[in-house]
Structure prediction request, 368 residues.
Amino acid sequence: MGKGDKTIATDIEVIKRIKTGDERAFAILIDRYKTKAMTLAFRMLKNTHDAEDAIQESFIRAFRSLPMFEERSAFSTWFYRIVYNVCASELRKTQQEYVYLDDDDTGNNEVEHTDWIPSTLHEQAELEKITLWEIEKLPAKYSGILTLYCFEELGYEEISAVLQIPIGTVKTHLFRARLQLRNAIAKHYHITTEHPKGVHV
Amino acid sequence: MNHLSHEILQQYADAEHPALALPDAHKHIMVCPQCTAEVEIYRRSEAILQANLIESRAEFTAQLMSLLVAPKPVVHPSRERFKLLIPAFVLSALMLIMIFWNQSIPTTAYKATVPKTIQDIAPSVINGLTMYTASGITRNIALIVITLVILFTFERVFLQRNSFHRK
Ligand SMILES: [Zn+2]
Prediction:
């Protein structure tokens, strides 16, 4: 297990309460996971309305499947897998690209290095705006894995369990996703060979 | 100068103790502002993603719970009263049948139908029954009324307990 060890006991206690008839205890799990589930769904589906529908569907599925939940694994991993699958299936319906990462799909690999580091508050705020703007524009396959990577309780092993792909593949996909985001951010600073210092937009 | 690859830059950005984990990369980063900036972009953009989570609507949990866990059906009190009236009337009808059947049997014949052991053990019970069968129809009706009163009292208590549990 990874970083999620601390929460397993508590989640499992709640699940035991639900399994023994206290169904209202499921509200604890909803409150605990709705924000991260919403973040994952929003970053994959790109709009609030669809994201909320997806997490509602995910919680309903989780609630109905709780009797099948094996307490050996973390509830978070199991639940994020449901959210991810619901979103992927939603994207499939609308014919959008979603899960599979093609081998040469990192955009421009010949990226220039920059020496621009946001230092002032204004620059930091601008980087925040750009980052959030760019993650929304990334394909779901990148934004999804990158969002999972930013959930502190999920390590490579847990992401591998969520996406149901080998750890080696998770690492490869993450590398590409992070590079894609970095490239998207870099474009805002017009980083080129001639002007490596970058210019603000 | 050859810069570090993005693979190394990402590993460096992730490492808890990068100087120990990636000493060669660390030496380069110490003298290369471009690679330092790249590491910072990875670190900061991912910290931004980590910090900017998206909240769902405030009423999301309550609405979802109302879908998942249906509230106990609220039964109108009159329906419950009606439900209890059925056994009350059945019981009353049974009592009426029993009373008229008993009245159709002469007291001595009725006495003969009671097992001998009971006659020996509880003669007072037999006497009571004998007196009962001999009593008039007014007394029987009074007994039916008492039965109904008992059932309605039980029903009131039952309803109050139910409404308490609903809260
Ligand atoms: Zn360098």
Observations:
- The interface with chain A takes residues 3, 6-7, 10, 33-38, 40-42, 44-46, 48-50, 52-57, 60-61, 64-65, 67-69 of chain B (CB under 8 Å).
- The radius of gyration of chain B is 43 Å.
- Confidence is low (pLDDT under 50) at residues 162-167 of chain B.
